[in-house]
Amino acid sequence: MSRKKTVKGKAAGSSSSSSPCAGTGTGTGTGTGSPSGRGSGKPRTVHPSTASISSSEFYDISFKVMLVGDSGVGKTCVLVRFKDGAFLAGSFISTVGIDFRNKVLNIDGVKVKLQIWDTAGQERFRSVTHAYYRDANALLMLYDVTNKSSFDNIQAWLTEIHEYAQQDVVLMLLGNKADATHDRVVKREDGERLAKEFGVPFMETSARSGLNVELAFTAVAKELKHRSMKEPGEKFMLQEYVNKEMKGAGCCRS
Ligand SMILES: Nc1nc2c(ncn2[C@@H]2O[C@H](COP(=O)(O)OP(=O)(O)OP(=O)(O)O)[C@@H](O)[C@H]2O)c(=O)[nH]1
Ligand SMILES: [Mg+2]
User: Fold this and answer.
1) Which pTM does this prediction carry?
2) Where does this protein have compositionally biased stretches of type Gly residues (predicted)?
């Protein structure tokens, strides 16, 4: 299934993404079509009086989040699940280039806009996506628990991140397709071990069931908000929050 794109909000180098997960190329956001179009990658503050009329556009702070990982791990589906609460199964059609969607979250009374960039996992688009890394405030690295090589390639994704992203970028490792119990080849403990080795928070997700999808983005939004607002006396520990809120595969919806 594909959706019509509007010119506004379409990223440079992107083209139609007709993933079964409804594609992320709806141009619902306010992107400028340039990786650095919003400035230096620093969070942006918008006051309501200067915000546009659409209520979804009202926000206090804004951050860029990027989804990376091998082709087919479920990046587009995770984003569609988060944005629309839907999972549309069907034949897999790879994302072409890069695209984004916006979602505003209410984090402890503060409206936090996440501009979420969905990248193509295919090697041939790597040069396009590299240009966007440096503006990202957070990067979610995804692998597929039913695909060992996508797990083994996380090391390579991390190397790219270190090369192209900002040093203080918020990172998280997600093992997606946790619903696919019969096809699983990567154990949850393997994901935990790898995340520990890299010093990044980890959880398993499922775009199909919704497991932990909302949590992944909320946790990142909380961390970014905390960092940008530097709330005195308040501490936010991303890993602790994730450990407390995370649900196991086979459990409930997010
Ligand atoms: N069982 C299951 N299948 C999933 C899940 N997420 C995605 N899929 C399937 O995996 C395939 C790939 O999903 P996409 O989201 O398009 O993958 P992608 O990472 O965006 O791939 P590229 O755009 O090529 O980088 C599709 O057939 C989806 O239906 C999940 O959580 N569980
Ligand atoms: Mg995709």
Assistant:
1) 0.83
2) 24-40
